[in-house]
Amino acid sequence: MIKAHILLEDGTIFDADANIEKTVLGELVFNTSMTGYQEILTDASYSSQIVVMTYPLIGNYGINPEFTESKSVKVNGFIIKENSEIEENKKLSDYLTENNVLCLSNIDTRNLTRIIRSSGCHNCLLTTEEIQDKHYKMLEEYFFPKDIVPMVSENKIRKIKTTKTKKSDFALIDLGAKEGIIKCLTNDGSDVTVYPYNTDAETILQGKHDAVILSNGPGNPKDVPTVIETVKCLTGKIRLFGICLGHQILALSLGANTYKMKFGHRGGNHPVINLKTGKVIITSQNHGYAVEENSIPDCLEITYKNINDNTVEGFKHKDLPIEGVQFHPEAGPGPNDASEIFNRWIKTVTKEVTNA
Fold first, then answer.
1. pLDDT tens digit string along 271-314?
2. What percent of the chain has pLDDT over 90?
3. Does residue 144 contact residue 123 with C-beta atoms inside 8 Å?
């Protein structure tokens, strides 16, 4: 193994082993999922981030092409306690090396996670070089990119046809969309047209879709004002549904505010309560921003809250067909508790199409 180091903003240094020789920078975050590392690695919502896995054994079922959420690995770096190699599938270490992704192992991830929980998400540097003054300067000058959504969004319109009997037609505004969202729609009998993040409302409406979905994605929702304006132009003209970053953008377009959380929600074990029924579901989450509850206008009703910290996890418009959830109803990875929300919404759209 290659010797490596982690340099934190406060000057703390951790020693580790690395798979390749490389130096990378990024925002340091942790994920509490026990499985799903392949989906995490390929989820565009993790772009420009360095992910610490809190579960100590990662890699124990290898790599399966069916579990990717995008065409490439999106994380800037990956930190695990122990790389559990297997023989049945492609090894995690081989997969990361082939994709030129720096992975550090043999490190106290519990201690590193506690630092993040205490001081919040912050930038860090991973390197296989000996720490020098230049590395401190590199870290001091690094900023999370504000143009992260344009970096991960489709750059042209992509149409996906369902292989089943067509029931409905959806537009998906790509802010870094997971393939799992598209699979949920097409498997249910829907055609999907994926639009680049900066597509204007007129173009989307010309597609004569039955509804519009705003996808998940990385970064600060306020860094994509173009999308916020597009949603304002779509409001009242077509049914809207937002997931994760899409949920935050919906809220901003309707007059609410968002803020950066201390260390966010990332993992497959976050309890969320349905405020109408009192039912608690376990959800898959990946976000560092949230909707500010006190800023939510009277036209919106909060539908879900996080049990752990009482943050807003969902809302719907009282008069218009608009709703959003902060968690991932399509899961991948994670529990399937929230799939009923997505399925209900899809069936509602399908019913409207049938009765039209």
1. 999 999 999 999 999 999 999 999 999 999 999 999 999 999 99
2. 92
3. yes
pLDDT tens per residue across span 107-135 = 999 999 999 999 999 999 999 999 999 99
Angle (CA) 6-8-13 rounded to 5° is 50
Is pLDDT above 80 for 87? no
Backbone dihedral region for residue 290 (phi beyond 0: left; psi -120 to 50: alpha; all else: beta): beta
> What is the C-alpha separation between 96 and 126, in angstroms, rounded?
15
Is position 330 annotated as part of the catalytic site?
A: yes
Q: What is the mean pLDDT of the chain?
A: 96
Annotated catalytic residue 244:
yes
* CA distances, 225 to each of 196, 198, 301 (Å): 14, 10, 24
Residue 271 · residue 251 · CB < 8 Å: no
- Report whether CATH 3.40.50.300 matches the domain 2-141: no
**Residue 89 reports pLDDT greater than 90:** no
- The active-site residue out of 39, 244, 270, 313 is 244
Domain 148-355 CATH assignment equals 3.40.1620.10: no
For residue 13, the one-letter residue type is: I
Cα angle 26-30-36, degrees, rounded to a multiple of 5: 110
Specify the pLDDT at position 84.
Answer: 87
H/E element, 283? strand 280-291
- Give the separation between CA 323 and CA 209, rounded to whole angstroms: 17
Q: Are 245 and 176 in contact (CB under 8 A)?
A: yes
Query: Could you confirm whether 184 is annotated as catalytic?
Result: no
